[in-house]
Amino acid sequence: MKSMKMIDEKELLNKLRNGDHLAFEYLYNEYKEPIARKLFGVLKSWDDTQEILQELFVRIWQHRTAIQSERSFSAYLYRIAANLTADHFKKISRDRKLAEALWLTLSQEHDTEILCLQTLADQQLMQTIEKLPRQRRTVFKLCKLEGKSYREVSAMLKISEAAVNDHITKANKFLLKNYDKSASLFFALLISNTIN
Asked: For residue 15, which of 20, 91, 99, 105 is within the disulfide window of CB 3.0 to 4.6 Å?
């Protein structure tokens, strides 16, 4: 095939308009590399570059009858490539926003379900704590729910620290035996026993 300089681009475009596959192939081979380099500079992905390049030349073939041979074909190609690139980034943005909205919705539904389960578990724990003997319940609530130290509870209730420890130990055993151990608040309370 003759070089581009020897073949008039206007003549090639007229042949392309008439459905000449060889003219299309010649123009494709002439422009694909410079356009691909420009696209890659913007997209930073060879996969995306190849996809847009393919779509560009598919559109050229599909709309070949609309090509105006007296206008710059190069400018026409770059304008279509720019529009396809803009569409690509808009799609990515829409997809990202859609994914974020979906995750937000799913997480809110999941959080609501967890919150409901946790509230129910907390109510059951409080009912189990209420079954403790009065003094043991008071010691447990002061230490575990209000976060007071054994020393503070000992001074408030005028009992020894050993008695506070005994009440907490017996309350923990009672709760382990009488409460659903899958509730997270329950485990948090038991773990906090080792801190005091």
From this structure: 20
The Cα–Cα gap between 150 and 157 comes to 11
CA-to-CA dists, residue 80 to 14, 38, 76, 86, angstroms: 19, 13, 6, 10
Residue whose tokens read 């309370």:
189
Over residues 143-178, the pLDDT tens digits come to 888 888 999 999 999 999 999 999 999 988 888 888
- CB of 40 closer than 8 Å to CB of 49: yes
H or E segment at 10? helix 9-17
CA 128/CA 134 separation, integer angstroms:
13
> Between the CA of residue 53 and those of 4, 27, 80, 133, what are the distances in Å?
21, 13, 10, 78
Residue-wise pLDDT for 91-121, tens only, equals 888 777 777 776 676 566 556 666 666 667 7
Q: Is the dihedral of CA 75, 77, 83, 89 positive or negative?
A: negative
93 contacts 87 by C-beta, under 8 angstroms: no
Instruction: Name residues whose C-beta falls within 8 Å of residue 46's C-beta, 6 or more positions apart in sequence.
Output: 40
Nearest to 54 by CA among 30, 72, 91, 28: 28
3 state SS for 49-101: HHHHHHHHHHHHHHCHHHCCCCCCHHHHHHHHHHHHHHHHHHHHHHHHHHHHH
